[in-house]
Amino acid sequence: VANTGNAVMSQFAQLVPNFDTRCDQPLAKETKTLLCTPMVDSSSTKMGSILAINKKKGTFTSQDEAWLKIISAQYAELLSNYVKHHKALRTRDYYASFLRASRALGGITSIHDLIATMQKTVKQLLTCGMCTVYTYDRENNLLFTLDAASNEHYIHVTNHTVAGSACLSAKPLRIENVYEHAKFKDLAASSKSAAHATLQGAAAPRANMLCCPVLRGSQVLGIIQCVRSTGSLFSLIDEEWLVDFTQQVAMAALHTFHQNSGAYKVFGLVEALCTISSEVRDHDVLESNIKNVVRKALLCDKVNVYSVDTMRQELVAHAHLSYQDEIQDLSAQIQTGEAELGLLQKQHRRANREVLKQDTQEHSHGDSESLDPLCEEQRQHLKELKTKREGVVVLSDSRRGSLVRVRFKQGLAGEAAASGGFQNTPHITGNEQLTDFERRSIHGHAAKNMLCACIYTEDGDLVGLLQAINKKHGVFTSADEKLLQTLCAQSGVMMHHADMLRTTHKQSQARFDLCQYTVKVLSCPDLSAICKIIASHGAKVLMARKCVFWVHELHRHSMWTVGSDDEIIRVSLREIATSVVGKAAVSAEMQMQAFSDLSSEGDVEEEEEQQQADGGQHSQMGQQFSACILAQPVLLKSDRSVLLGVIECVNKKGSVFDEDDKYVMDIFATITAAALENLSGAVSVASCDKPVKSTQTTAIIEN
């Protein structure tokens, strides 16, 4: 009757076609007479039927049938209204959840908050034991998610996983007992891998799964995967609601998240560029600002900033700045821990006040005491963090002034510098030839992924390199490359300006030192004193580790100088003819030579085992320099063919001698020549072993 919509009335119920005692005989008594009418509402929707059996007096009549049809129509409307009302209430609840989720997801810029909020909403919506939200990384063909402990998990998009199949097909999948499914029977074994770690625990031996892609047009943005280990199966209605959720909420949330992240990065970029430009006079401060900006913009654990030594084809980094990332991370953890401790202490004081207010203090006293171990545990944790930070600060201070040098084509940074472009390594497998300096991230963690980019000036000159290590969530993408390119451009301008300022300051300081030297050397009474003045002021003017003035003895074909203990050191020109000083003396031209130091190849080794063997005392990371000698002949001003001596400077501090140093050296030699010519009591350099004072000014000219 419910199916056909036609009423049935009979005095002999057992003879009615399709009579079934399981439903047509609801009473213990035998059904003798029956009257059954359909329930159809005003929209002709079949709502069921009404069955009347065993009329007490007589049999059912046509009048009874008419009355029952009227009653059936009324009940059909009531039932229809109830179903509509129930659906409306359910729809209202669902869309209220949609609106709450949309409001909660609207302003999120953290991928962890986005995934956690969306998973919580879907679990409440579908009443499932577990929900996992994946975002799709199209560039690397990976599904990415975070667990409750912020651990990262990746799934390669293939047909061997439910999430991968849903991603490839761009259609929802509803699977009963997924581990016994013919296509996914190996999923139980694969769930032991890190990629499926989020399914462990929730996926019981009998797991029902509903997986739905988040689509924007035909483009997959992510996957929502729900699991029920017990209870009812996922129904078609559940699938429809999840599809509706992905279209109405999840798609908009993921798209808005990417837009918000982009806008956040743009606004942050403006602030970052201002931060980079704020200080260019102090090289350490500039590099520190660049590190902070890049780490915040790219959301990575560590950033290395290298400058370029073009003469030696090396990348140079300040060793102590490599610990700044870890110090700041520990400081952030300490700040968060102190806030949590303050909250616990506030709850503890509130619980104590409740104890004092109540006569029966048993329950409240227990709450108060339960907070004591939590506070003590948090204090201990903060103490450990502060101790660790102090140790890193001490280690950083011990490395201050030390340099780490990396040759071009050595390590990923060296390869990027040699190629002159980007070097994006999404997954470090261990086959890469990494240097010790770039192999480790903060807290001793190994480098998992890396992005390197060269820094150029406005004129296209390579001045540095930025190296970002370990993206916090996921891997470095093309968007990160574009952002880093912008930061490199600004950093290049600032580093170039910093170099110009340092050069200007260096030139000003050199002129000031030359003036002081001129005043001192022109008033010097003898040649021995001039040698000592040149030794002290020459090293200061040229920032050399050692400066020596060799006096030329023409008749002996030798050169002599005054040692640190006022002893006379004399050498033969024949013996030193192939040296830098000898070449300068013979050619009467400036000579410079840099000697390769094999011990400086690569980066500076930092061995934690050696530090522990030293009783925890961190050894100073020494600077490794190649030997560099600059020799300038001092010629008679009135006759440039007469050699008075040679000024030798050894090993410039922190670098090698450049064109500016040569210019300063030339001025320095000219002032020295003038001082020697105007020496009131000139020393006869052609005399005996020990120079003595002389009243003949022409003696030095003759020699």
Kindly list the characteristics that best describe this protein.
about 700 residues; alpha+beta; 6-stranded antiparallel beta sheet; 17 helices; about 20% strand; disordered C terminus
Topology:
Blueprint: E1 8-10, H1 21-24, E2 34-40, E3 46-53, H2 62-106, H3 111-126, E4 130-137, E5 142-146, E6 152-156, H4 162-169, E7 173-175, H5 187-190, E8 208-216, E9 219-228, H6 236-277, H7 283-298, E10 300-309, E11 314-318, H8 324-357, H9 362-398, E12 403-407, H10 411-419, E13 423-425, H11 436-439, E14 450-456, E15 462-471, H12 478-522, H13 527-541, E16 544-553, E17 558-562, E18 568-572, H14 580-587, E19 591-595, H15 608-613, E20 627-635, E21 643-652, H16 659-677, H17 698-702
Antiparallel strand pairs: 1-2, 2-3, 4-5, 4-9, 5-6, 7-8, 8-9, 10-11, 10-15, 11-12, 13-14, 14-15, 16-17, 16-21, 17-18, 19-20, 20-21
Helix pairs in contact: 2-3, 2-6, 3-6, 6-7, 6-12, 7-12, 8-9, 12-13, 12-16, 13-16
Question: What would you note in describing this structure?
Answer:
45% of the residues lie in helices and 20% in strands. With 703 residues, the chain is of the alpha+beta class. The strands form 4 sheets. Strands 6-5-4-9-8-7 form a 6-stranded antiparallel sheet, with helices on both faces. The longest helix has 45 residues. The chain is rod-shaped and about 155 Å long. It starts with 7 loop residues before the first strand and ends with a helix. The C terminus is likely disordered.
